UniProtKB/TrEMBL annotation:
Pfam family, one: ECH_1
MF-aspect GO terms: catalytic activity
SUPFAM superfamilies hit by this protein: ClpP/crotonase
InterPro entries in the cross-refs: ClpP/crotonase-like_dom_sf (IPR029045), Enoyl-CoA_hyd/isom_CS (IPR018376), Enoyl-CoA_hydra/iso (IPR001753)
Organism: Halomarina halobia
Region (Disordered): 241-263
UniProt-recorded name of the protein: Enoyl-CoA hydratase/isomerase family protein
Protein family (similarity comment): Belongs to the enoyl-CoA hydratase/isomerase family.
C-alpha cells in the first residue's frame, strides 16, 4: 500500500486491480486541494505498477471513500482562497476520465457536488442503497463547477440534469439509477459485486479495454460517422496484438483459457 496525505492506494498483483481510498473521514472526504492532488498522485502510483511488468499490470481501479462516505463535495473552507475552477488540481476530474484503465466508483453515504462529479468522471458507478447523491451548489448561489450538469445531460438527459442541479435535492441510489447516473445498486453485496466486476474487467484484453474506453469517451464529442471512423482506427492495430491471437485461439479451442498481457 502507498499512503498519501489524504488518499491510500493499493495494487493487487494477483487480480491486476488497483484500489484508491479517499481518506478524509473527519470531513466526510470533502475535496480539498490536497485531496485533489492526491487523487492524481494515487492514480499515477497505480499506473506506475506497469513499469516493471511484462505487458500491462494495472487493468482496473476501484475508488471509494473511507468510513462510510464517498465524498461530500468540495471543501467550502477553501472557496475564499480559490474557486473550484481555479483549484490547483481542479483537473483531477479530467485525469480520472482519461485514465487508461476503467475506474469504478464504489459509492456509500454522501456523494455530493464535486464528489458526484468525481464519481461521474469514473467509467462506472456502483452504489449502496444508503448512498445519497446530488448537486447542492444551487443553494450556495453557484452552478456545479466541474461539469456536473454536462455529465448528467450525457448520462441521462438535459431535463434530468436541470432537475438535479436546480433543486439541489439528495437523490436515493434507486432514483440515481432510474436516471442512469448510477449503473447498479446493491445492499450488503456491494463489496462482492464491485470486486467481481473489477476482476472481470481485469481479465479482459487490456489494450481492447483501453480502446473501448477511449471510443466511448470520444462518442460524446463527435458525430456518428466520425465515431465509426475513430473506432475503425482503433480496431485495426488490435488485429496485430498477441492478445487478439490468444482471444481468437480461445474462440476456436474450447479447452484453451488465454491470459491476456496487453501486448
Amino acid at each position: 500500500m502507498e499512503e498519501f496525505d489524504t488518499v491510500d492506494a493499493e495494487f493487487d498483483e494477483e487480480t491486476h486491480v488497483g484500489y484508491l481510498t479517499l481518506n478524509r473521514p473527519d470531513a466526510l472526504n470533502a475535496l480539498s486541494d490536497q485531496l485533489r492532488r492526491d487523487i492524481v498522485e494515487g492514480l499515477r502510483w497505480l499506473e506506475s505498477q506497469n513499469e516493471d511488468a511484462e505487458g500491462i499490470a494495472l487493468r482496473a481501479v476501484v475508488v471509494e471513500g473511507a468510513e462510510g462516505n464517498f465524498c461530500a463535495g468540495a471543501d467550502i473552507t477553501e472557496f475564499s482562497e480559490a474557486s473550484p475552477g481555479e483549484s490547483s488540481e481542479r483537473h483531477h476530474y479530467q485525469f480520472v476520465q482519461e485514465f487508461p484503465v476503467p475506474i469504478i466508483a464504489k459509492i456509500r453515504g454522501y456523494c455530493l457536488g464535486g464528489g458526484l462529479e468525481t464519481a461521474m468522471a469514473c467509467d462506472f458507478r456502483f452504489a449502496h442503497t444508503d448512498a445519497r447523491l446530488g448537486l447542492p451548489e444551487v443553494d450556495l448561489g453557484l452552478i456545479p463547477g466541474a461539469g456536473g450538469v454536462q455529465y448528467i445531460s450525457r448520462l441521462a438527459n438535459p431535463s434530468a440534469a436541470k432537475e438535479v442541479a436546480m433543486t439541489g435535492d439528495h437523490l436515493s441510489a434507486e432514483r440515481a439509477h432510474e436516471l442512469d447516473i448510477v449503473n447498479r445498486v446493491y445492499d450488503e453485496d456491494l463489496d462482492e459485486a464491485t470486486q467481481g466486476f473489477a476482476e472481470t474487467l481485469a481479465s479482459k484484453p487490456p489494450l481492447a479495454i483501453q480502446a473501448i474506453k477511449d471510443a466511448a469517451n470520444v462518442s460524446t464529442q463527435i458525430g456518428l460517422d466520425e465515431g465509426r471512423s475513430y473506432d475503425r482506427r482503433r480496431f485495426e492495430p488490435l488485429l496485430d496484438t498477441e492478445d487478439h491471437q490468444k482471444g481468437a485461439r480461445a474462440f476456436a479451442e474450447d479447452d484453451y483459457e488465454p491470459e491476456f498481457e496487453g501486448r
